[in-house]
Amino acid sequence: MTTEIKLLQARRVWDSRGNPTVEVTVELEGGARGRAIAPAGASRGTREAVDLRDGGSRLRGLDVQGALTNVNGKIAAALKGLNAEDQAGVDAALIALDGTPLKSALGGNAMVATSLAVLHAAADAAGAPLWKHVAQTYQGTASIPLPEIQIFGGGAHAGRRVDVQDFMVMVPGAGSFDEALEVTAEIYAAAGAIMSQKGRSVGVADEGGWWPVFDSNEEALETLVAAIEAAGEKPGERVVISLDIAASEFAEDGRYRLALEDRTLSSDEMIAMLGSWINSYPIASIEDPLAEDDRAGMCAFTKAYGERVQIIGDDYLVTNAKLVAAAAEDRACNAVLIKVNQAGTVSESVETLAAAWKAGYRGIVSARSGETEDVSISHLSAGLNAGQLKVGSFTRSERMAKWNECLRIQDELGENAFVGGAPLVDTWWGKGRTAGA
Ligand code: PGA
Ligand code: ZN
Description:
Blueprint: E1 5-14, E2 20-28, E3 33-37, H1 65-79, H2 87-98, H3 108-126, H4 130-138, E4 146-153, E5 166-170, H5 177-197, H6 217-230, E6 240-244, E7 251-252, E8 255-258, E9 263-265, H7 267-280, E10 283-287, H8 295-305, E11 310-313, H9 321-330, E12 335-338, H10 340-343, H11 346-358, E13 362-366, H12 376-383, E14 387-392, H13 397-413, H14 428-434
Parallel strand pairs: 4-14, 6-10, 10-11, 11-12, 12-13, 13-14
Antiparallel strand pairs: 1-2, 2-3, 4-5, 5-6, 7-8, 8-9
Helix pairs in contact: 1-2, 1-3, 2-3, 3-4, 4-12, 5-6, 7-8, 9-11, 12-13
């Protein structure tokens, strides 16, 4: 059969932080090929698939020779002859071969690059762009997502210069993906100009957002609002704010250590602080407001603010369908971040999105802080009809490659396929729109 997997080849390539990572090329019997690269997180959840790294002192222990050996050896042997069109079967074979809860035997990095490369090869065999192949394979509908774009980076991506990890904007009021990018470009530039004027311009963080030189987390929010205004927008109209608190990163023994402000908050105090931000700024989405093990806090936060803002579980849900189902029972979060390398395979990521929709949750396809030129996630977000895409900021080519790929997909799908503010209709922003406010 022409779509049978003929050979797999892994090579070491380098990510946006200059760290080694795994690239896999798959060739099918009929000559079709696919290629994908594993991304890498810095603020990782403890329940996500783990990357296999070599350890030791060379390359700070980060080399991936073991993962490459697994792809070229065990994985290639197990996958040879399987039908690349059967992504579920290929991923099931990978999962069975690994046999561990967190993919530690083969390595999540080896598995995700293989799984995605097979998906690309099947698309190539079908003569379809990846987004179309994904839509045809999984659910038929494709759309252009609402982008969520970082303006200031923080947390583990900026030497912990501020505690909160991502200060982002979304443009739900845009009429097209292109327009959302243009508005964001103006805000990004305005934020940079404000930082320069204040003598606080020191470069960019890991995902390309401005490196945050602020005296408090709230100063970042104030500056973001000022940048939105300087770009000629009225905050809360066309543009809203989105935050990734990544609270697990500064949680200590059930409390939250805001290093920048030299204070420690209880879970209730964290919720109160975030609530005051929601009341004071046009925030429509918050990710990981509490730590991955603060179940009571996540439930309390969702109870208090789930009607007003999108509450995304990233470290809390680690792209795991079972955790999404459990959170839905608990009424914790109302959305899930979809990171293919947290799950380890394409199929498990798709299952997680399905579990999210079943629970009435939204799904946001996301990059990692360590990225490459690989643009698979742009296609996944469009082909899975996910509705939202989070990639980092609006500089650095590992980020821009994803946004630019969405523009190409927009050309193929047509501007009308842009979801606009639809994912936010259940938030204050959407309710405000329908009320004509
Ligand atoms: P990471 O962070 O890729 O460094 O884990 C991204 C995020 O928290 O969304
Ligand atoms: Zn996150």
